[in-house]
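Hey Z.,

So I finally got round to the (S)-3-Hydroxyhexanoyl-CoA thing we talked about over coffee. Here's the setup:
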Amino acid sequence: MTAINPVTDLARDGEIAVITLNSPPVNALSGQVRDGLAEAFRQAIADGTAKAIVLICAGKTFIAGADISEFGKPMTGTSLFDLEQIIENAPKPVVAAIHGTALGGGLEVALCAHYRVAVPSAKCGLPEVNIGLLPGAGGTQRLPRIVGVEAALDMVTSGKHVNAKKCLETGLIDTLAPEDGLRATAIEFAKTVVAENRPLKKVRENNAKVEAARGKPEIFAEFRKTNARKFRGFLAPEYNIRCIEAAVNLPFDDGLKAERKMFMELMTGPQSAAQRYVFFAERQVWKLPDIADDTPEIPVKKVGVIGAGTMGGGIAMNFLNAGIAVTIVETSEEALTRGLAIIRRNYENTARKGRMTMADVEKRMGLLTGTLDMNALADCDLVIEAVFERMDIKKEVFGKLDAIVKQGAILASNTSYLNVDEIAASTKRPEYVLGLHFFSPANVMRLLEVVRGAKTAKPVIATAMKTAKRIGKIAALVGVCHGFVGNRMLAQRQREANKLVLEGAMPWDVDRVLYDFGLPMGPFAMSDLAGLDIGWVKEKTSSSTLREILCEMDRRGQKTGAGFYDYDENRKATPSPVTEKIITEFRAKQGITPRKISDEEILERCIYPMINEGAKILEEGKAIRASDIDIVWINGYGWPVYRGGPMYYGDSIGLDKVLAKMRAWHASMGADFKPAALLEKLVAEGKTFRDLK
Ligand code: 3H9
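And the result:
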């Protein structure tokens, strides 16, 4: 075996040259990797006694793509394009041996090999779209030549990882190898290719499938239409589609040029920069500076959930999906029966849509026990309380749980605002208490805020984070403060949205601006969806806010067919003349003369105070990093990922701009706008949130 460089080896197995790449963690195509591979291929090609070449990777995966951390920096070493040319034009067969994931540039390299062999657990995909890019090394031109235009469109715009069985069906791979016999099978396969004198199959020459779609622009028009909602605001999906169109309509080399041009445009643009930032932020969020990776975990085999309402039911489903037994406790037979029935119905709906079998439904329901007796939670490892959001009730529940649930078990509250330390103090085990703030619908939303109390023990936090991963969540560790990270910042936006309406904007103006910014919906549409009567008490209402007036008129949101908006029978919203009249009269009563408010002001007033609040959260140590706050907003509130999260957005528009506005509003409108000390400091030092260590 010859070491070509620190990450690439060249060995021989009879007449087959075997190139092994070993660049942990995921064999990404860094400059060093490209150099090593290029040199190894050159040597293997030059060696007249080697009849074929196998490319295989060590470690957990085949090449998982270009090295994303190199993007935006000057390129060093062999270009990926040159490496691909060497492989594709090799005068002897090249076989790629795939395990783990062949993604992005990794699959593109494999597509330049003449044959591909994979183990059954392997997956292939072109996930560049997820980081605001397109496959820029020929992937958009070669993939449709194998899998066809429709399948290629789906793969490049969804970024999905396709399993080996499916890849075999579409021809993306040529044969399967046993799970523990990839190397041997790939070598045998290469020997057969040599022995049978099989052709050097170049994907680029395979035109039948792209030609079949030529002159059929409706394929693309239909695809765009079907996915318009999903792609809204994103540049990359459209560019990926255009590249597949180029594959269909242009000769291969011209298609490559078109792909290159669009790739560079995306790569140097703001959306991909934001999405690449999010890629790393999603991985950073799990890293906890003061909790070592080897902190002992508390095994979580059985979970208790208190409350079978929407939240409790959704929470329970997360664990059932992960194969963890759940006991759910309610206070009345009726509420329990209803809660269990809703869980079943949700699963059955999923099964009806073909995303689960009825056997899966029964398996999950088989793990679920409903009871009215809290004592049934005695042997749970983790109990999550999802009862009414009132401190006295929470304290009572925790007091009872403390007496019932075994020592060493974790007691968690799903509170979205309340003081977790106060809840913990109602038990004799505050170190085993923390907040697990799920977002509604809890079985769908990815975010989990893990709220660390003053006394929460490290193994409890470590267990919460690991458990979050097990149930498919993305967890951010946050500190105790009113509303934690997400809702604390949301409150800023809501306050300003309400004020803007008093000052002269209409709710649908505010909603439109935020929707166009990329959020799934604006604050008033969101209030209508949640119900305007959350926290509204009929007996105490006094027409003191627009919200109260709307509730008094039984305009309590979507559920009553009217709120800020009017709704038709399909829940389609239209701006309401009734609401408009209420607002106009309310302003008059308050002596407010409405003024014209620009879209720019709406956006800045809603978002800059959030960024300022984020700075306060950081300053108080309630979030570990600015990027964790971004993760909260992307995964809990639908902040558009191509804008990187509110803190990243602040950095990208310039913190000096945010500060200048906060100062001006502070002077004209008072304390709500007091600039955060951290914001002042960063601007004074010419730094950004990303510079914070
Ligand atoms: C591309 O290929 C462009 C080309 O078309 C054209 C070029 C001209 N680069 O996710 P994990 C790190 S674009 C750099 O926790 P898992 C990651 O940050 C690329 N680093 O592991 C983490 O580091 P740390 C297209 C990368 O087992 C560590 O590896 N490819 C890259 O849960 C472990 O990652 C993609 O978009 C990378 N490409 O999942 C694939 N990938 O430990 C992106 C990972 O310091 N990668 N790292 O935090 C993935 O989807 C997952 O990482 C993978 C493994 C499924 C591979």
